[in-house]
Design goal:
Layout: H1 7-29, H2 34-67, H3 75-86
Amino acid sequence: MSQRLSISATIFFVLAMALGLYFAFAAVQGPSGILRRIQIEAETQDLIVERDSLRADVDRMQNLTRRMSDEYLDIDLLDERAREVLGYVRSDEIILR
C-alpha cells in the first residue's frame, strides 16, 4: 500500500528545498560568499605587493632627499643630478645614446 504525501507536506517539502538551494547559492555566489572571499583575498595580496613597492619608492626618495639636503650633501649625487637635469658633460667624456 503506497502512501501519498498530503498537499501541505508537499508544499512544505518544496519550500524547504527551494530555501536550501537559495541559501546554498548565496553562500557560494552571494556578496559575502566563498567566491567573493577568494576574490577579496587575491586583491588583498595584489594591494600588499603594491604597498610594499610604494614603500620602497618612498624610502628611496627619502634617501635621495636626505642626501641632497643642507645637513648632508652627497657630491656624487649632486654631480649626477646636475648632469642629467642640465645636460652637463665633461670635455673628456663620450656620450652614447
